[in-house]
Amino acid sequence: MADNALLIIFLPLALAVVMAGLGLHLTPADFRRILAMPRAVGLALAIQALLLPPVAFGLAKLAGLPGELALGLVLLAASPGGVTANLFSHLARGDVALNISLTAINSLLALLTLPVWTALALSVFLGDEASVPPPIRKVIEVALLVIVPVMLGMALRAWKPALANAAEKPVRVLSSLLLAVLIALAFISEWDMVVRFLPVVGLACVAFNVLSLLSGYFAARAAKLAEPQAIAISFEIGIHNGTLAIFIAIEVLQRAQATIAPAVYSLSMYVTGAIFAAWLLHKRKTQA
Questions:
Q1: pLDDT of 124-174, one tens digit each?
Q2: Do residues 11 and 201 lie in contact, with contact meaning Cβ atoms separated by under 8 Å?
Q3: Where are the domains of the chain?
Q4: What sign does the CA torsion over 105, 109, 114, 115 have?
Q5: Residues 256/190, Cβ–Cβ less than 8 Å
Q6: How far apart are CA 234 and CA 227, in angstroms?
Q7: Residue/partner pairs of 115-123 with CB below 8 Å, 24 or more apart
Q8: What fold does the segment set 2-283 form as a domain?
Q9: Selected residue with higher pLDDT from 53 and 5
Q10: What letter would DSSP give residue 240?
Q11: Within 10 Å of residue 230's Cβ, how many Cβ atoms?
Q12: What are the CA-CA distances from residue 288 to residues 91, 245, 281, 284 (Å)?
């Protein structure tokens, strides 16, 4: 119980810091850029909103995950891309400007799509009696914790660009530290479930991560998008905001076991993301 209380205390702070860090990268031009790249943006949003959650449903069923663990995987799949996606895209020579724009619009779109997929996951994995929509007050809280910090970060960039640039690295480090604390608390609070299901949850999370990265990249290439845009899309839909998924599991749904999959994913994504980036760089070098 004490561990859950600490989670509840840390979660709003962690989510606010992560979203403020996103805002520090954003300008109004990033939103206007969306209109200039309709095919790339439309493809990325369609995969994120319509393809990835069903993939998570299928993996959860295939792995035989218990109800709340399966719910956590779907929450993760329906969550938008994280700021870490921008870093991986930069390392792999992707279109980072497209990444930033996609992360911004994806975070707003998730406010509409997340409740839909969450309600469906509750119904499928936990029974009809569990599929009660979250209170409007909680939905508003999530919206505010996503939108307000982003707006504050954008305001700081517009008002004091030099200060925003100086703050980017400390905020990124703080975000990583807070995420590490959240992962540790999630593991400690549900340790018995972690020990019992870690192999199967870990496999499901890695499989989901790899499928997300590959589907984004190859769908973009099939759509005749340029290599940098394909790289940006692959990381945008392959690296998710685990902090938001954990926040919804605890603060909105009050289901602590649903934090396990996002917590495991938030660790494994660094390994799979780095391997995927290395493969992209190797492919680029051999084709040069």
A1: 998 855 555 555 666 677 677 778 888 898 899 889 889 888 888 888 788
A2: no
A3: 2-283
A4: positive
A5: yes
A6: 10
A7: 115/139, 117/53, 117/74, 117/75, 117/77, 117/78, 118/71, 118/74, 118/75, 118/78, 118/248, 118/253, 120/74, 121/57, 121/70, 121/71, 121/74, 121/75, 122/71, 122/253
A8: Na+/H+ antiporter like fold (1.20.1530)
A9: 53
A10: B
A11: 24
A12: 17, 40, 11, 6
Token duo for residue 167: 């703050």
Q: What are the beta bridge partners of residue 134?
A: none
Among residues 157, 119, 261, 153, the alpha carbon closest in space to that of 201 is found at 261
Query: Residue 68 phi/psi, 5° resolution?
Result: -70, -30
DSSP element (H, E) containing 226: none
* Residues written for the chain: 288
Instruction: Please state the pTM of the whole predicted model.
Output: 0.83
Residue type, 170: P
Q: Is the pLDDT of residue 233 over 90?
A: yes
The C-alpha atoms of residue 189 and residue 7 are separated, in whole angstroms, by 9
- To which residue do tokens 């895209």 refer? 89
Greater model confidence, 194 or 35: 35
Q: What per-residue confidence (pLDDT) applies to 136?
A: 63
